[in-house]
């Protein structure tokens, strides 16, 4: 297995135990943070520090990041197993990986951009309110997931480019043509 495939497996798995668990681990952390925020806003009895709402509500961008995290976890587990077990080494597997990774990449960049724009600076409440620190962490992990997905896209393209010639050689058996030498006559010698 080429070194770039190990790098991809390492990135799919994440950053917590080794670099092998980055995409998975960061998606799990973002899943927990967004789940906490949704639970917090849905069970709210008093006013929220970040909005003027009183009573239960939810932020649609947080829900979008929760869905992106769930998809990121599922895709990272599947492609981690596929890379390490060398399942589907062909162009179809590459296409599926690119489609899944691109869709999650778009979800993370949209979610991270919207949430960063919605709450650009939470210094005023970061030291006094837990929800401000949690939103800061959500913003950080959504950008981190986007960055890891970007690097995974680049490494997947590089890995496909390096293995593209081997994909074309798998299509059929290779035949070689040998040249036959003309017989040398005894009189010429």
Could you describe the 3D structure shown?
By secondary structure, the chain is mainly α. It has one domain (3-164). The protein contains 5 helices and no strands. It has helices spanning 3-13, 22-42, 60-85, 91-118, 130-169. It is elongated. The termini are far apart.
Supply the key terms.
mainly alpha, 5 helices, about 190 residues
Secondary-structure topology with pairs:
Layout: H1 3-13, H2 22-42, H3 60-85, H4 91-118, H5 130-169
Shape: elongated
Mean pLDDT: 76
First CA to last CA: what distance? 54 Å
**Total of DSSP H or I helical runs spanning 4+ residues:** 5
Largest sheet: none
* Structural class computed from helices and strand pairing: mainly alpha
What portion of the residues fall into strands of 2 or more residues? under 5%
Low-pLDDT segments = 15-20, 170-174
- The total domain count is 1
Total E-strand runs? 0
- Residues in helices, as a percent range: 55-70%
Q: What's the order of the H and E elements? A: HHHHH
Radius of gyration: 25 Å
């Amino acid at each position: 297995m080429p070194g770039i495939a190990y790098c991809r497996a390492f990135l799919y798995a994440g950053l917590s135990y080794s670099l092998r668990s980055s995409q998975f681990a960061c998606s799990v952390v973002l899943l927990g943070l967004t789940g906490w925020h949704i639970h917090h806003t849905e069970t709210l009895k008093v006013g929220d520090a970040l909005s003027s709402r009183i009573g239960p509500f939810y932020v649609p961008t947080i829900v979008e990041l929760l869905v992106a995290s769930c998809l990121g976890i599922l895709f990272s587990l599947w492609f981690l197993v596929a890379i390490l077990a060398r399942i589907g080494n062909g162009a179809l597997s590459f296409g599926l990986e690119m489609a899944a990774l691109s869709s999650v990449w778009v979800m993370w960049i949209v979610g991270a951009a919207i949430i960063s724009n919605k709450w650009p600076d939470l210094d005023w409440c970061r030291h006094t309110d837990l929800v401000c620190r949690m939103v800061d962490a959500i913003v950080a992990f959504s950008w981190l997931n986007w960055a890891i997905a970007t690097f995974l896209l680049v490494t997947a393209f590089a890995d496909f480019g390096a293995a593209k010639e081997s994909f074309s050689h798998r299509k059929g058996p290779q035949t070689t043509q040998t040249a036959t030498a003309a017989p040398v006559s005894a009189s010429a010698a």
